[in-house]
Amino acid sequence: MKNISIIGKFLTIMAAFGLFILGVVTYSATQIWTIDTNYSELLTGEAHAAQSLIRANRAFQSARANIAEMTILRSEADSKRAVEDLKAAQVGVAKYFDTAIAAMPLETSFGSMKTDALKVLAESCKPTTDLASVASSETDIKASQSLFISSCQPLFGPIENKIIAASNAAVTSADDKSDALTEVSKSTIMKTFAIVMGGLVVVLMGGYFAIRAWMVAPITSLAETMARLANSDFTVTVTGTDRRDEIGGMCQAVQVFKDNGLKTEALTAQSDSMRRDAEVTRVQTAEADRLRAEDMAQATSGLGKGLQYLSKGDLTFQLAEPFAADFETLRADFNATVAQLSDTLRAVAEATGAIDNGSREISASADDLSKRTEQQAASLEETAAALDQITVNVANSSKRADEARTVAVLANESAAKSGKVVADAVDAMQKIQQSSNQVSNIIGVIDEIAFQTNLLALNAGVEAARAGEAGRGFAVVAQEVRELAQRSAQAAKEIKDLIRNSSVEVQNGVRLVSETGEALKTIEGYIITVNTHMDSIARSAKEQSVGLGEVNTAVNQMDQVTQQNAAMVEETSANGASLATESGRLRELIAQFQLGGAARPAASVSVAGPAHRPVQSPVRRMAGQVARAFSGNAAVKESWENF
Amino acid sequence: MNAPVPSTGKSGTLEIIAFRLHDQEFCVRTTTIREIRGWGVATPIPHAPADVLGVMNLRGTVIPIIDLANKLGMRSTEPNERSAIVVAEVHGTAIGLVVDRVSDILTIPESLLQPIPEISISSGMHYADGIIAQPDGMICFLNLERMFETLDTEKLIAA
Question: Does the pTM of the predicted model rise above 0.95?
Answer without folding.
Answer: no
